[in-house]
């Protein structure tokens, strides 16, 4: 048994199956196995429970599980060696009791240290030296939470027992498994208790004492069933068989203790606790242990199972397992404390130290400003250490906006998508003015291409604004923890950054405006990549010929209904006519425009343009154009306005009235072959030139944004900070600390101290 006055312990025969080993001759203290390790763990447990983070580190503990009234509390009491737990035939344990046994000094000369006492976490500072009072407090605290009507709760009661007579073990007494609800218990009481038990025993660091009464069906033990769920390979389960004294006469638990019925890697221990009658008669634990010893002695069936019988053997077994267990988990524990230490040190560093002197404040301010601008730079450059691996951020987002949004969007734009043939025709006719043109003027092309170039301004400015927004986001990311300490400085930094970003946006936008204006201002038809007039005419003619061929073929097909099904042939013909635009119609309306004309045009253009890329000399002067209303051919003027128009004046006295020209004049629907060609040429030229400009803009707009906005801010931010914020007369105002930071710093320091202490304990005691 654990309660071992030195004299009594010495009287026991070393190696006796029912006694703890006697004190080591080398020391007056009990040389408990693993003594150096278990106090350390208890200490750590203390430390972490103080920090309120016991769940952070899984410390080894022993949980007692079993069905109701199986004898769990009795086993715990016997291990502790004192009567202090509520026991009885009815439900007693209704809240988990976390019981930490702490071995105090055994030196006999130090009388005060021989005292035993208990302390509850919920009654801080009070020592319970009367163990009867401890039992009452457990009952009272249970009732405070749950009333008296048998309800259960998972809220822990934490109790420490200090004694020179205990092994250093932390034990958890859990409510017993019950099947039938009574009193305030809910209908699903069994499931609830099982879930609660599992939350304790599922942890790899928990050693399970599976208590089964020998007078029940051991093969169907609830405790062993639960243990098997949490610990399927049985590596941390000890089977405890209680009530061996009240088994059916003629039966014994030998087979169970040997593990022949349900094997367990850590084996079984059989025990005999006090019965209810003993409790009522206030039989002492010491007497109970004496009785237990004599019981096993009197039963020859258990004689050669001495190491599996009796509470002292259970204590030894537990202690050995705990030592091995703790040794195995300590390195991990140490590593975790190390990680927590690093995190806390970082946090503490972020709160900074309090500085009073002007120079100290200046250095601090400079440091914060430098860190901020460096942070900004590193996020933009993609060199930030805390860069996300799950999404694009910082500079990568800028690149995405340029390439995947801006460049791609421009590529998807068709420069002619908002220009139909009428628009182009109107532009051409407007450009010829009142005269009949000899050559196709460049004016409509330039006019239309400028219109298309102007469309590039809005997306380019939008791109700049997107990048600006990104930079604002990046600036928020640069706020260090340290900066959060100083709300005033933080606000000022935000203001400076925001205005500096705006200042950078403005020249970028101006530059973009200039770029577009430049492109619009001079249409460089000599650009080597420009298709050029001759090529455009040639291509347009080819298109025309192709369309014509298709149309005539389809008309023939239509006239031969037998060759194609009627519907299909009709559809093809209509399609072909549509694609050939109004060519066939105009062939009838304008017989003068023959197929020879385009050829002529080609020849003329190629001979007259020579190596020039311009378009002025594409069309020959002999070509005719339709008038603005399109209803009559417009020939080169052949007579003067003074010439009589029809009959001689004297033949009619009535004056000739002209009809008023309409307020809005539109190009007529009828379209000559020449016009169709001009439209096609204009389209080709437009596309070709627009392509050149688009590429320029795709290249130069990102460059302008990078130069005037991104890189400028990146390079100059620190200088701007110094110019605007680093003022000696502003030091104190800017570095006024937030109130809660002082509190956080203090708390952080405290936790750090406790963790450092824990780490030190591990370093000095772990070997
Ligand atoms: N004869 C005999 N009685 C025992 C033994 N162990 C426990 N008892 C009795 O069984 C009853 C229940 O014991 P407890 O220790 O309260 O059992 P428990 O499992 O903690 O009960 P709950 O916490 O209510 O689930 C008490 O009356 C004990 O005196 C034993 O080994 N022999």
UniProtKB/TrEMBL annotation:
Start and end residues of each Dynamin-type G domain: 56-331
Molecular-function annotations in GO: GTP binding; GTPase activity
Residue ranges occupied by any GED domain in the UniProt entry: 679-767
Keyword annotations: GTP-binding, Nucleotide-binding
Source organism, top-level taxon: Eukaryota
Span list, region Disordered: 550-571, 585-613, 626-645
Gene3D superfamilies: Dynamin, middle domain, P-loop containing nucleotide triphosphate hydrolases
One Pfam family hit: Dynamin_N
Comp. bias intervals (Low complexity): 604-613
Stored SUPFAM superfamilies: P-loop containing nucleoside triphosphate hydrolases
Keyword ATP-binding attributed: no
Family as reported in the entry's similarity comment: Belongs to the TRAFAC class dynamin-like GTPase superfamily. Dynamin/Fzo/YdjA family.
PANTHER family linked: DYNAMIN (PTHR11566), DYNAMIN RELATED PROTEIN 1, ISOFORM A (PTHR11566:SF21)
Name of the molecule in the record: Uncharacterized protein
Gene label: LOC112273490
